[in-house]
Amino acid sequence: MWKDYRISKAAVMLNEWCRKWAAYLSPFKGEVVFRKEFPRLYELRDSMKNPDAEDSCLRNLDQDLQHEVVRRIWSRIELDLRGLDADAWTFLKSEALLCVNTWDEKSSRRGSPRGRELLLNILYQAKAYNFLKTKDCSAIHFITRAPKKGKRTPDLEGISSTARFLCEVKTINRSEEEVYRQRVEKKYLHDHSKLAEEFFAKVGGVIENAKVQLEAYDPKGEATHIVYVIMNFDDFWGDYKELNIRQLDEYLCAHPVPGIELVLHNLWTVFNRSMTLKCATVVNDE
User: Fold this and answer.
1) DSSP of 132-176
2) How many domains in the chain?
3) What global pTM score does this model have?
4) Residue 92 pLDDT exceeds 50
């Protein structure tokens, strides 16, 4: 019995020793491993003015990536970023740096419960870039913002052997109520089985606004106008995603927007489901 106790005690002590050393070594090991797995994400972090500042949005990147859910979210973004050519990555990185280098003033974690949403909204544009590849576009580029105030430009242009495409990327983010519930109250379980009327109004407004923006840039309609919408439902886990998608499809079918090709991007969630819609093209994160 005493022998069994000593063996058990030694096993507990060994396990505790291993746990402490793993915690000590993980930042060093993690950075080396993750830099290989996320080269463009780390290139962005390395280009920041002060990536280790207290309110830097990528300050704890090494530690964050050790969490499986976080790592899977960033891995999809990294895959999108790798799909950019050198010029497109340079452009998008510069746009992202404008965001992260002014993080303290605009959206520090202490000042805004929305956290990294501003940065993600920029990086998500890479998803639309890669979608244009499926249109057999050999020349794809981000469109530089117009220097003249008040003049609006779409985000992307793609040219194939038979057509020209203009693409405006929009992101539907979580509602203010849900952001407060998740980030401030730390409540993640809620009934999201029925989408609110405010949600549909927001979606409709975003699509219409993107259409107006595309038509202002290309008034003669010489190009195909694509509105690429990144969907973030209030449901954090994605447990109600299938129901939400069905309701959204019903709304889109009842409120068609002529003159555009509507594309919805279904972001990866813990309870992930690939979706199809009757009234829009869907790109699924796998």
Assistant:
1) HHTTT-SEEEEPPPPSSTT----SEEEE-SS-EEEEEEEEEPPPH
2) 1
3) 0.84
4) yes
